[in-house]
Amino acid sequence: SLVVLFGATAGAYGAKLGSDERELILLVWQVVDLHSKKVGTLHKSLVKADNLDLSDQCREVSGLTPEGLGKAEPLDRVLQQFSQLVSSDLKVLGRSSYTLCSDGQLLIRQVLHPETSKKNFLLSDCFYTFYDLRKEFHTCYPSSAAVKDQTIKTMAEYLGLATDEAEEDFGVWQVKTMVAIIFSMLSEGCNHVFTEPETVKYKYETGPCSKSETVDSETVIRARGLPWQSSDQDIARFFKGLNIAKGGVALCLNSQGRRNGEALVRFVNSEQRDLALERHKHHMGSRYIEVYKATGEEFLKIAGGTSNEVAQFLSKENQVIIRMRGLPFTATQEDVLGFLGPECPVTGGKEGLLFVKYPDGRPTGDAFVLFSCEEYAQNALKKHKEILGKRYIELFRSTAAEVQQVVLNRYMSTPLIPTLPTPIIPVIPPPYTIATGSIRDCVRLRGLPYTAGIDDILEFMGDATGDIKPHGVHMVLNQQGRPSGDAFIQMKSADKAFMVAQKCHKKMMKDRYVEVFQCSGEEMNFVLMGGTLNRSGLSPPPCKLPCLSPPAYAAFQTAAVIPAEAAALYQPQALLPTTRTPQASAAAPPAVTYYPAQAAQLYMNYTAYYPSPPVSPTTVGYIAAPPGAVAAAASATHTPILPQPGALVRMQGLPYNTGMKEILSFFQGYQYAPDDYNGLIQLSDQARSVLQAPKEWVCL
């Protein structure tokens, strides 16, 4: 038997059903006996949504009102009634089993599964297998329209069935027409057999991924804006109803081995990927998640691995993986097993532990642990921040992809200091320095695609490009010399900047909308130094140094610098050896130059050394400058590099929310002399005033 099912939400209808995250408000169904060609009672049930604000399209198409829905039952009660009434109808028809049949996949995959997942109740097993009437119809009638173009009305018209929707209530006509279509497919001329149902996976399966594996780019998406503590199971829950490939969730890490709020997700086919893209800006808790297309190459870069040690560790399937961070460097397997205790036994004992090490064999303080069930993993997570030796240990959920990424890509194959890019390169030369002052003749572009270039920005600006100052487009790069998604543009006047902000705000560039804010040169510098700027105003930066820039993945090999005033505050050449500088490709300038030369890109500073795990002492140590660099700096300034030997201290293990006030309070009672640092670098008056301000002192 089939149970023909139709539903509607309080929002979009048709091809966009479920894309706006609106709740279900209507279910209509009828049992069909395929052998006797008899039908059961047609049932129509309204569903009371938490939000009864109906869209205009919903009101027009369905004729439903908030008042009528307010008297209905909630979804969990309606689904209970559904199961009871279907069982009753089957008993009347002399049948015991059934499979759902819906018009396409959206109702099951994009509405019912995501909504019940968010409301924390389980769907019955019948909702994990169903027939897609559109696919079955196209199989039966190959000359009909493509599956994606099919609707109930077009299928009925193809068969010559009556299509007057006005004769029946909304939902009733749809179910009756679907039943008539099924009977036509069962007629002697067709004799169609329903044999290959669609399936929804009950749970996400973990597993390793090899770099030699072929990954279809049409099956991969990138999710952005994830909570940092989200696991692969949380991401699978966000995409509930869609089939993710085994081991298909890869959490992205930054250069410190920490999650950066992004993940690459691989689905079983392109159809599932296309449905996933419709969940762009759906919510995970209180956060909205951005969903974009990605490539198989990007997925393998994050998730792929070939280490025998990792492969052996991940060979035990369907295990829960926990990451331990901050372990003492002397910790042994016995110490870790003793820390976890008998209440959370590790799968395979010592074989279920994997310590992360640097290329020279030194421990990093990280380890991964396997547990056979969720109960044991939950017991382990309860030990978060308990003490082992003299250290507190952090425990987090992890994934197979994260194991491979941390062990292979981050620690085992990444050199520490020699290959890091030069933190600072020459300062923007006059006359192309960033303007200062309070005149709001600049605009900030936020949310640019990482592949966007100068030409894309000029095309985005349209007619307003004629109002851009020469050398007035500044791409903001991160520490790797890649686009950060931000850009600043200097306009010829404040009026021009205002017009651009009004005209271009949230205008689309490629597949993303871009936010455009009017700002001044002073505000621009504030943003580069860690402040925030939006239409509500400016929030000042927490300190006077540039803030971290989010990692990006698109290749953009170009030199990058910071404005002169910011560069004066931070010259690591006195502390770090000379490192490799990326070579920028030369390009012929256009007739009208809207942007600075390659060396005039803005720079959002990042850490200048490869960090050790959190709450762990560094294994990099202090790096002295080469004697030649010290001598050159001393001869240039005619003053000592430091006021006296050992005058600099370096602090590690700081809480991440530490500010300047907390650091100064920590050193209360000790005398520091910011004036003495004038001999370290050439300072402008503005930079010197920053260093001399006690409450805004900069730690170098």
Automatic annotation (TrEMBL):
Its main location: nucleus. Gene3D superfamilies: 3.30.70.330, Ribonuclease H-like superfamily/Ribonuclease H (3.30.420.10). Belongs to the ESRP family. PROSITE patterns: RRM. The keyword Chaperone does not apply. GO terms for biological process: mRNA processing; RNA splicing. This is Epithelial splicing regulatory protein 2. GO terms for molecular function: RNA binding. SMART domains: RRM. It is found in: Nucleus. Keywords: mRNA processing, mRNA splicing, Nucleus, Repeat, RNA-binding. Residues 320-400 form the RRM domain. One of its GO terms (cellular component) is nucleus.
